[in-house]
Amino acid sequence: MLNKFDWIANRYEELSEAIVQPEVIADMAKYQACLKERSQLEPQVQAWQRYQRLLAHIAQAEEMRADPDLAAMAQEELDTLLPEKAALEDELRILLLPRDPDDDRSVIIEVRGGAGGEESCLFAADLVRMYSRYAERRGFRVEPMYTQDTELGGVKECVFAIAGSGAFARFKYESGVHRVQRIPVTEANGKRQTSTCTVAVLPEAEEVDFDIDPRDLRIDTYRASGHGGQHINKTDSAVRITHLPTGMVAACQSERSQIQNKARAMQVLQSMLLENKRAESDAAYAENRRIQVGTGDRSERIRTYNFHEGRVTDHRIGLTLYAIQNIMDGDLDEIIDALKAEEQAARLRSLT
Questions:
Q1: Torsion of CA 131, 133, 135, 138, to 10 degrees
Q2: Percent of the chain at pLDDT above 70?
Q3: Ordered alpha helix ranges (H), 190-282
């Protein structure tokens, strides 16, 4: 481990020198690549520097302990420093874990109503708001792409992008079935009901990832749906693209221009195909997805939102929080940080 961090520190210094060289600055692609690699190494280098300073303090305390007049004070300092050393070594081990190559990407999220009729669609709308508010808290940008509304304000299906570096690292744990237990507004007898929604989180594909043969696509245009009045689109600007070999479908209606909607729908389709391609052909990638606390499959129930008891339970890690209103308002950090910690622990276990 120590040798690995020596190499990382040396590489960081090389990159720091490279980005101020005129020939590198003149080559924008090379300059951006150096900046990106340096930024990725920075947390490891900073942790390694803290560790080296800590080792120096421990060595000083060990020397002081040999002096009878300073032994008690030195031992007191060591009692504080040694646990810090153990904690920092754990942090260093985690920083050496291979990074998910998609962590820096933006994401595309699909939320769909499931079992429970109109109530599931109303809860799907609640989830869309929850994710949108969380994205805003984290400084990401929310970009609507496609929504199929219901008359009561729910959504049968909603697809939207969350743009910003590191978005996938925060949202990737949300794929799966979300279950809600509450009294629906549609329930006249006041009986609690259990409904479900499905969420899929896809890393946004880049144009360079792979090409799609235009002959494999069927592109349909239609009039965007809305609640009426000024929201109804008067032209056939909405676009639906079907990938014929796989049957995958992506749609976009959020833009006024058919050309823009087509481009956004292609983004979604590329992301769906990229995820499918990797899962099929790359065993390491599939294992990395599996170890992200659960399979991430839409058939897996990952979380229950019980409004009567005011609790949210994540079944993958057995975490229950009695703060449902805060969570629905977008305060997801405690859940996501716990899922991230469990994923890191699982990955460390898999290496031993």
A1: -140
A2: 89
A3: 258-281
H-only helix segments in 282-316: 283-290
DSSP 27: -
Q: For residue 1, how many C-alpha atoms fall within 13 Å in the half-sphere facing its CB?
A: 14
Q: Distances in Å between the alpha carbon of 306 and those of 214, 243, 266? A: 46, 38, 37
Among 171, 180, 178, residue whose Cα is nearest residue 339: 171
3-state secondary structure string across 75-96: HHHHHHHHHHHHHHHHHHHHHC
d(C-alpha 123, C-alpha 113), whole Å:
8
What is the residue whose two structure tokens read 């190499």?
7
pLDDT band, very low/low/confident/very high, at 296 (cuts 50, 70, 90): very low
**CA torsion 342→344→348→349, rounded to 10°?**
20
Question: Letter for the amino acid at 204?
Answer: E
**How far is Cα 6 from Cα 284, in angstroms, rounded to an integer?**
27
pLDDT tens digits, 21-65: 999 999 999 999 999 899 989 999 999 999 999 999 999 999 999
Q: 């209103």: which residue's tokens? A: 325
CA–CA dist 217, 220 (Å, integer): 10
Query: Per-residue pLDDT tens for 147-167?
Result: 999 988 999 999 999 999 999
> HSE-up of 312 (CA within 13 Å, CB side)?
18
pTM: 0.76
Which residue spans within 59-165 are E strands per DSSP?
107-113, 141-149, 155-163
Listed in sequence order, the residues at least 6 apart from 85 whose beta carbon sits closer than 8 Å to its beta carbon are: 51, 54, 55, 58
